[in-house]
Amino acid sequence: MNNAHRPFPPLPQLSDEERITRARTAFERLKTRHSCRAFADTPVPREVIEYAIRAAGTAPNGANHQPWHFAVIGSPEKKRAIREAAEAEEKRFYGEDGDRPKASEEWLDALAPIGTDASKPFLETAPWLIACFAQRTGGIAQDGKTQNYYVTESVGIACGLLIATLHEAGLATLTHTPSPMGFLRDVCGRPKNEKPLMLIVVGHPAQDASVPEHAIEKKPLEQISSWF
Predict the structure, then answer these.
(1) Residues above pLDDT 70, as percent of the chain
(2) Among 5, 16, 126, 144, which is 20 to 30 Å from 226 by CA?
(3) How would DSSP label each residue in 64-127?
(4) Given phi > 0 = left and psi -120 to 50 = alpha, else beta, which region is 69?
(5) CA atoms within 13 A on the CB side of 62
């Protein structure tokens, strides 16, 4: 293990006004990000996805074990397999398979304004799917045995950076989380020590893509922060 240290990298020398401007600009860009559920099949260069994953790999994480893996799916056959498996789980979730819904009535009521159902055509239409896996073990050496720490927190932050970078690149995204998601491990050939955390759909929005009015409403600063 390397215990050496190096100086902290220099940060921009900015005035308070410049820092406020940069923070405001970042907020103004990020507030235009919305989940997209209607994608065009317009190609997206692989290099865009590569840089977004590199950005995700800079996320803070427990003991620098970097407990994540991003499986990128562009193959039509793989995307079709994922759609079929995801829709099977979603039909059980919404009760569209003829059985009682797995989701509670309260949960389904909460989803109603968004207008989601078991049909997920975007899983085949969008040019890229990114399956995000959380590695319970492996460590920096990826030995599959060393215990990882703060796994969910670490991978969650990485996914946030991934989504922000893709938005900065002018792309639409959707976080899709069918439950259970074990089929993603099978389709992507990932080991048992990895847990699928989410599927990120990436591409250009379709011409008829829309955002539910319900999703536009964001809690104000006063509700999401406390100052002491």
Answers:
(1) 100
(2) 16
(3) G---EEEEEE--HHHHHHHHHHHHHHHHHHHTTTSS--SS-HHHHHHHGGGT--S--THHHHSS
(4) beta
(5) 19
